[in-house]
Specification:
The protein is of the alpha/beta class. Among the domains are: 60-192, Leucine Dehydrogenase, chain A, domain 1 (Rossmann fold), CATH 3.40.50.10860; 210-364, NAD(P)-binding Rossmann-like Domain (Rossmann fold, 3-Layer(aba) Sandwich). The chain is built from 16 helices and twelve strands. The structure holds glutamic acid.
């Protein structure tokens, strides 16, 4: 267990007391505060004026009712959230998640992580997150549209190009962003392209935004492997999930010469020793909206599907958890280390439990935390905002080149910060401190607000 600095311990205790029961939020705050002892010792001014206490308290939290009518004509009620966590560096920025597990604690953990992630990108964006406990699984297109419209009917008064710019997350992709943008436009009578990111190309979206989170995570891991003079070439890689992040992680890993042998969804995982057939995964998940079990059924020999086991039992050199929070436990980390894993890159937000992170670090496995490794998605959202603001649209190559540079810079910043603070190779510490310093400088300059 990492000991927390004595100045920071009362702050953590107060966060735990005030936000009782919000386990994921506690976990995210604890991890950051564990890293900050060394900064506060070096720069005591960052602890002045209750700066850290203010950082842990969202600037604004909005909770609202989302009524909608299903295909049977029944009225359904969900709960909507938007947590506007910190706007010291720019308008609040962060995705919207539709998943039955969503509650205020989940949105606060995601919003808190987003502050540091967004700061690491070096772009002018603050941190926020939103979502709903709506379950899109099995819902018709019409139901999805009516839900998105109702959600935006309340959300529209809280967002804007200069205020808060939502995007997608789990359960929210191009289709949902389209319905929400349409409703925003209708309600405000403004074609304000920069109010949402993750839009489709034909109405103000950015090329490479869909691919950005997965590509970015892979660029980060590539750079991390390079510090050990190695590459993806020929490495067995396991990528959990089969959503947007996982699909484009697999695509880039394959392009870099790695061999992806397994992926998953919330029901189970599939192993294909010949290498996952990405076209089939895309067809199943993006077009047919089917389950990953169909992969093994369609491919047959040489593949197998395991229902409800752990994908981390599959031996690999590189693990890229790209599904959801706390999907990789301490027991999974032990298995991965026993099987000789060399690097772990988090595509999802906080997919490894604190115990898993400790096990990787003790075993000297290269470990890239989500708030650094998956920052490519939001960074490309900021590039989308730039294009919208200048009414411009860039080529795929140009946009991906910018993404690659941003990821390289984030990697190097985390590595240098870890060195500077006496913990070489500790990307968790490097990411937390580097992200914090950028936000703290701005908060300090803006006074007590
Ligand atoms: N939901 C993504 C994240 O976790 C992207 C957010 C965005 O593009 O604003 O960073």
């Amino acid at each position: 267990m990492v000991v927390i600095d004595e100045k920071l311990e009362p702050i953590l205790n107060e966060v735990l007391r005030r936000n009782a029961g919000e386990q994921e939020f506690h976990q995210a705050v604890r991890e950051v505060l564990e890293s900050l002892g060394r900064v506060v010792a070096k720069h005591p001014n960052y602890a002045n004026n209750a700066l850290i206490e203010r950082l842990c308290e969202p600037e604004r939290q909005i909770i609202f009712r989302v009524p909608w009518v299903d295909d049977k004509g029944q009225v359904q009620i969900n709960r909507g959230f938007r947590v506007q966590f910190n706007s010291a560096l720019g308008p609040y920025k962060g995705g919207i998640r539709f998943h039955p597990s969503v509650n205020i604690g989940i949105i606060k953990f995601l919003g808190f992580e987003q502050i540091f992630k967004n700061a690491l990108t070096g772009m002018p964006i603050g941190g926020g997150k939103g979502g709903s406990d709506f379950n899109p699984r099995g819902r018709s297109d019409g139901e999805i549209m009516r839900f998105c419209q109702s959600f935006m009917t309340e959300l529209h008064r809280h967002i804007g190009e200069y205020t808060d710019v939502p995007a997608g997350d789990i359960g929210v992709g191009g289709r949902e962003i389209g319905y929400m943008f349409g409703q925003y436009k209708r309600l405000t009578n403004r074609y304000e392209a920069g109010v949402l990111t993750g839009k489709a190309l034909f109405y103000g979206g950015s090329r490479a935004r869909t691919e950005a989170t997965g590509y970015g995570a892979t660029y980060f891991v590539e750079r991390m492997l390079a510090t050990k003079k190695t590459t993806f070439e020929g490495k067995r890689t396991v990528v959990s999930g089969s959503g947007n992040v996982a699909v484009y992680t697999m695509e880039k890993v394959i392009e870099f010469g790695g061999k992806v042998v397994a992926c998953s969804d919330s029901n189970g995982y599939v192993v294909d020793e010949k290498g996952i057939d990405l076209d089939l995964v895309k067809e199943l998940k993006e077009v047919r909206r089917a389950r990953i079990s169909d992969y093994a059924r369609l491919k047959g020999a040489g593949t197998h599907y395991v229902e409800s086991g752990s994908i981390w039992d599959v031996p690999c050199d590189i693990a890229m958890p790209s599904a959801t929070q706390n999907e990789l436990t301490g027991a999974d980390a032990k298995t991965l280390v026993k099987n000789g894993v060399k690097a772990v890159g988090e595509g999802a937000n906080m997919p490894s439990t604190p115990e898993a992170v400790r096990i990787f670090q003790e075993a000297r496995v290269l470990f890239a935390p989500g708030k650094a490794a998956n920052a490519g998605g939001v960074a490309t959202s900021a590039l989308e905002m730039q294009q919208n603001a200048s009414r411009d649209s860039w080529s795929f190559e140009q946009t991906e080149a910018k993404l690659a540079t941003i990821m390289r810079n984030i990697h190097d910043l985390c590595a240098q910060t870890a060195d500077e603070y006496g913990a070489p190779g500790d990307y968790v510490l490097g990411a937390n401190i580097a992200g914090f310093v950028r936000v703290a400088e701005a908060m300090d300059a803006l006074g007590v607000i």
